[in-house]
Amino acid sequence: MPKAVLGIDKEKLFADLGYRPHPGQLEIHRSRAPRRVLACGVRWGKSLSAAMEGIAAALLPCQRSFGWVVAPTYELADKIFREIVLFVTMHLRTRIVKLTEREIVLVNLGGGRSSIRAKSADNTDSLLGEGLDWLIVDEAARLKPEIWQSHLSQRLIDKRGWALLISTPRGKGWFFDLYRRGQDPEDQDHQSWNLPSWSNPFLDREVIEKERERLPERIFRQEFGGEFIEGEGSVFRYVRERATGNFQEPEKGLTYIAGLDLGRIADYTVLVIVSRRREVVFVDRFHKVDWAQQIARVGAVCERYNRCRVWCDVTGVGDPVYEALLLAGVSAKAYPFTQRSKAALVDNLALMLEHKKLTLPRPEVWPEGIEELENYEYSVTDGGTVRSSAPGGQHDDCVMALALAARGVGFKDPAPLIAKWV
Q1: Selection from 357, 371, 363 nearest residue 399 by Cα
Q2: Alpha-carbon distance 404 to 409, whole Å?
Q3: At the N or C end, where does the chain have fewer CB atoms within 10 A?
Q4: Residue 264 confidence (pLDDT)
């Protein structure tokens, strides 16, 4: 039973804070299940209801309590945390003991201290430590299952804490499994809800229907309908089917094209080599290597693969690296990254996989690349823009390097190889 419903009248508290939950939100707040799973369409009010649950939990009379708001990235975790801070500073300012960028400590109704922290799942070291009284997980479907299983759920054991997991559905992974547990009337520990955006009475249904007209049907069904659709959020299809190849040594006389995505700080630099037969034959992936060494490393590989041309991201730090590659004698082709140009790259790669125009290395040969391709997804921003990207907290360096190389090879079939007289 979540402690947030014990010893405090939440509905009266919400009224005092100026929060008027709609019927769907009210059902969440009244639930006493230790694990609540909320899978709804965008703009349903998931974040607001989660923020109010966090405030109610922090005010619960006790000597000391700890609660976390966790999401795939700090940017996403901050969304709910900022909502909490906004309501507290407006209505409960005298209870604030400490307020930093990602922690707020309050005097609860029993005179004790309650801490609320924002956490990012992309840094698992930060998820170690104290036991928790409660936990809110935002965009839960975007997290890898081991984050919940090995880093978060264990934090709740000591204090028998409760968890509220909220997300727009993303296929049928571990979050879907938890949702199904919540649909089992025999499971008293889990309760779940799956609701479309239009079940929020404060949204204009006509506006939502206009989104249906301009969005691909599968994206609308997932993002606004809140549907669990197997693989429908994925950008790249048939990844495993096309992953049948191996890395290969260069062949004399065969043309190769390279794609280079340059890493910044935590990102990786990735070089992907594709043959004119449209087979991925070589991948180099590294980080924390200075630019001079990177240029030498890329140049040596391109030289070995018959002095192949390399398509290079020239955004930001990529511009001077591109110039340095040219000075080093590498045949480099600039490709500036913009929202539109990246979308064109991704669309071309998706089309090549869809039409079986590209052979990838087997998953055991290139695990990072296959994982990135399978995780790359469509989503809808708060502003209604459809975008494709890696899930929050995950990398897309292999995807972009491969997309650059695929752009260089082209979608059309290459001219047939002509046998030479010996």
Answers
A1: 371
A2: 9
A3: C
A4: 61
Q: Which residues are within 8 A (CB) of 300 and not within 5 positions of it... i.e. 6 or more apart?
A: none
**Helix (H), strand (E) at residue 282:** strand 280-286
Round to whole Å and give the CA distance between 214 and 209: 9
Q: How far apart are CA 40 and CA 223, in angstroms?
A: 8
Nearest in space to 111 (alpha carbons), one of 74, 146, 153, 59: 59
Boundaries of every domain in the chain: 3-223, 239-409
The two domains 3-223 and 239-409 share their CATH topology (first three levels equal): no
CA-to-CA dists, residue 3 to 7, 52, 70, 241, 316, angstroms: 8, 14, 19, 48, 49
Amino acid at 2: P
- pLDDT tens digits, 281-290: 999 998 877 7
The dihedral region occupied by 23, where left means phi > 0, alpha psi between -120 and 50, and beta the remainder, is: alpha
Rounded CA separation 232/98 (Å): 44
The pTM of the whole model exceeds 0.70: no
Determine which helix (DSSP H) or strand (DSSP E) holds 201, and give its type and residue range.
none
Q: What span, in angstroms and rounded, lies between the C-alpha atoms of 193 and 38?
A: 5
Q: Which residue matches tokens 């991704």?
A: 346
- Strand pairing report for 162-167 and 64-71: unpaired
Angle at CA of residue 364, ends 363 and 370, nearest 5°: 25
- Identify the CA nearest to 271 among candidates 304, 236, 222, 241: 304
Domain 3-223 listed as CATH 3.40.47.10: no
SS3 410: coil
What would the two tokens of residue 71 be?
Answer: 């999401």
Class of CATH domain 239-409: alpha beta
Q: What is the pLDDT of residue 395?
A: 78
